[in-house]
Amino acid sequence: MIWLLILIFLASVILFWAFFVEPNWFRLRRVKITGQKKLRKPITILHLSDIHFTGNLGSKRGFFQRLSMLNPDLIFLTGDIIDNSEGIDTAVRTISGLRAHYGTFLVLGNHDYYDYKTVDNIRYHLGLGKTAINRNNVNRFCSELKRIGVHVLINESMKLQVHGNPVLIGGTDDPVTQKIDFEKALHHLSAETLNILLVHHLDALLKLSHHGVDLVFAGHTHGGQIRIPFLGPLVCDSKLPRKYVAGLHTYKDITVFVSRGMGAGRSIFPRFACRPEAIWFEVAP
Ligand SMILES: [Fe+2]
């Protein structure tokens, strides 16, 4: 009997932690990427992903205040920025408070296109359909983002100088649209530029045939969201090997980073051993 009570107590603590503590326990992670020979000087990047803004900023408010004081060279947002159309104004207002010396760049994710309810999420994770019944107002979201100066990259690229370093930043559409076009997303790719690709879902790289991409930033997996200590994630929404669910890795000679994300969908939000994160990168020669 006592063991049953201990078991119930432990289960309650774990559930309370996963539902109410860890999803709101944000961390700013620091990652250094070296060996980028095309750079003459280091550059700094703030990477945010999978914020899943709704109409209420909630516990993210204080963390965003901290992020707004960072002033990196570049800010990358790799999709699932909103969770539903009610999140558009919150997202635009919050992102407009972030500053980067050379600009903010964003790609869309499946949750930017679709408002996933519980039934849609179940169908998604059972592989019964990647889309949801209700669509978000993604056109208004994109036009609002452009109005505040965010570069929305939907199969597009931009070339710029960052501290005198020639940098290409390309971004794809999300796989859910089945409209990924690497020809357009990497249009300005050259051997002289540091070629950076933003994707929401790293699985997009399965169709990448271009050579010369140096760095890829992605999200989507949320790091698995529920991880068993020492074993890893319970679920890994990717066709790639499990190690690509989060963190810094190499994929076909490309340095890739997959964020654990800052949020999660409204109906599947608990986290365990997988804190929500923003990442401060120093990318150096
Ligand atoms: Fe997400």
Percent helix among the residues?
10-25%
Largest sheet: 6 strands, mixed
Q: Compute the number of helices.
A: 7
Q: Approximately what portion of the residues adopt beta-strand conformation?
A: 25-35%
| Strand line-up in the sheet with most strands | 1-16-2-3-4-7
Question: Could you characterize what this model shows?
Answer:
- The protein has 285 residues and is of the alpha/beta class.
- The protein has a single domain, classed as Purple Acid Phosphatase, chain A, domain 2 (4-Layer Sandwich), CATH 3.60.21.
- Helix content is 22%, strand content 27%.
- The chain is built from 7 helices and 16 strands.
- The strands form 4 sheets. A 6-stranded mixed β-sheet has the order 1-16-2-3-4-7, covered by helices on one side.
- Strand 9, helix 7 and strand 10 form a beta-alpha-beta unit.
- Helix 3 runs parallel beside helix 6.
- The protein is globular, with a radius of gyration of 19 Å.
- The structure holds fe (ii) ion.
- Fe (ii) ion binds next to loops.
